[in-house]
């Protein structure tokens, strides 16, 4: 089978599952809503809503990534995407059904039908994920892969090698080789993919040239300067190709839009989560009778110091240092709040006060700032934007992710900022709440 035909099969599979999900929704709701049975205004608007919201959610959570992710993450992400799509389309349909010929006033009805629709769709997603990955890996063999590393970097190799070993259907690891090994170029004739860990810039440039020469796809571990440079805009000055890099942080328009989004999400979040606030406050008081909220000095944009608010999850009057995974200072109520990621909810107050943003680098303890900057002088780059309640490092990172890797992820967010990025990260945070090994701080 040709490469183009294989690609066509995968695209057809993805198109089929999307059509299936839409067909389930409109077939079941069409039985109870006459307006969906013909080309009425309600049908057109409802159909357009499903398609647009569906595509938007797939852009956020991943477009049925068969061959890229394992089946369970595909099921998980696609399920969240279709649930949000169904809810938005269902609400729009209820609005359209509010008319003189149907409901005189707005009503939420047919919730049982919505539930059955979602169940059938989720079953379809499960079948698609496993069947899609099965078909993909029947057509595509694992990429013959080598990992190139610097002998002075002994930390990254075990982590990356362990990660790739989990994806044996995607990567066939032929070996690990140092960047200065004389046999490196000869090995490139027998591989399909190259993973380049942290290496000296000159050596990495040589490797990139070799990969380009041999038409090999590759991934590389970027330096901090790479993140900054990659955020630039290509331009031509007279007849000379140049790259312009903006290091001033967010523009005025971006700051205004970000602030509007912050206020909107914080207000909605506070209203929706108000029962959790009440339950948490009562539980903390009943547990040890101590204070409900915990305040601590943190740094935000331009190094400004502010008091960050959290539900108190530790015993009172204990030493002040970063919590570890099994910290004996954490109370029984605190363990629950941390586990369900609700101890940070009071930071909505910080957001409304303008001290924090919904999305941004996590505010760091002042006690840690100096120690991090001694090792990573670039740590201060995180202060180009307001500290955030959630962020790329919290979504993609783990509890034990290194400070440098979290810094790189924070810089990826800052240097490639857009309001769309904030929107995506806010929605993806819903997934992270249920992610066992997600990060809670630096």
From TrEMBL:
Q: Which GO terms describe its molecular function?
A: phosphotransferase activity, for other substituted phosphate groups
Entry membrane topology? Multi-pass membrane protein
Show the stretches that span the lipid bilayer.
Answer: 7-30, 42-62, 74-93, 113-137, 260-284
Keywords assigned: Membrane, Transferase, Transmembrane, Transmembrane helix
Q: Which InterPro entries match?
A: Bact_transf, EPS_sugar_tfrase
One Pfam family linked to the record = Bac_transf
The UniProt entry lists the main location of this chain as membrane
What cellular component GO annotations does this protein have? Answer: membrane
Bacterial sugar transferase domain: from which residue to which, for each copy? Answer: 258-435
Compartments where found? Membrane
Keyword field contains Transmembrane helix: yes
Q: What does the similarity note say? A: Belongs to the bacterial sugar transferase family.
Name this protein carries in UniProt: Exopolysaccharide biosynthesis polyprenyl glycosylphosphotransferase
């Amino acid at each position: 089978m040709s490469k183009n035909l294989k690609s066509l099969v995968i695209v057809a599979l993805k198109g089929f599952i999307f059509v299936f999900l839409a067909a389930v929704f409109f077939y079941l709701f069409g039985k109870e809503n006459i307006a969906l049975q013909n080309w009425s205004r309600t049908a057109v608007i409802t159909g357009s809503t499903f398609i647009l919201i569906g595509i938007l959610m797939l852009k956020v959570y991943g477009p049925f990534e068969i061959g890229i992710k394992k089946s369970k993450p595909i099921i998980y992400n696609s399920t969240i995407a279709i649930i949000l799509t169904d809810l938005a389309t269902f609400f729009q349909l209820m609005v359209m059904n509010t008319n003189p010929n149907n409901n005189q006033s707005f009503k939420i009805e047919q919730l049982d039908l919505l539930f059955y629709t979602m169940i059938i769709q989720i079953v379809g997603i499960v079948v698609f994920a496993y069947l899609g990955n099965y078909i993909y890996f029947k057509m595509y063999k694992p990429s013959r892969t080598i990992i190139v590393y610097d002998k002075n970097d002994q930390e990254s190799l075990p982590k990356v090698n362990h990660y790739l070993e989990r994806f044996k259907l995607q990567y066939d690891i032929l070996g690990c080789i140092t960047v200065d090994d004389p046999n490196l170029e000869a090995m490139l004739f027998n591989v399909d993919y190259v993973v380049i860990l942290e290496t000296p810039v000159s050596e990495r440039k040589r490797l990139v040239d070799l990969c380009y020469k041999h038409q090999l796809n590759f991934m590389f571990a970027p330096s901090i300067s790479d993140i900054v440079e990659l955020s630039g805009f290509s331009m031509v000055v007279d007849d000379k190709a140049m790259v312009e890099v903006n290091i001033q942080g967010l523009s005025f328009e971006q700051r205004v839009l970000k602030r509007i989004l912050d206020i909107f999400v914080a207000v909605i979040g506070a209203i929706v989560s108000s029962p959790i606030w009440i339950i948490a406050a009562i539980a903390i008081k009943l547990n040890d009778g101590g204070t409900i909220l915990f305040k601590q000095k943190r740094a935000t944009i331009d190094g400004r110091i502010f008091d960050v608010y959290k539900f108190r999850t530790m015993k009172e009057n204990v030493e002040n240092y970063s919590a570890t995974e099994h910290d004996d200072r954490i109370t029984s109520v605190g363990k629950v709040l941390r586990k369900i990621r609700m101890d940070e909810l009071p930071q909505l107050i910080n957001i409304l006060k303008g001290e924090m943003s919904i999305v941004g680098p996590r505010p760091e303890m002042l006690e840690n700032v100096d120690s991090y900057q001694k090792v990573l002088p670039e740590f201060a780059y995180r202060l180009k934007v307001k500290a955030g309640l959630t962020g790329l490092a919290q979504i993609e990172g783990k509890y034990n992710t290194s400070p440098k890797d979290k810094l790189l992820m924070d810089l990826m967010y800052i240097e490639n900022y857009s309001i769309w990025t904030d929107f995506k990260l806010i929605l993806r945070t819903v997934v992270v709440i249920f992610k066992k090994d997600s990060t809670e701080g630096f």
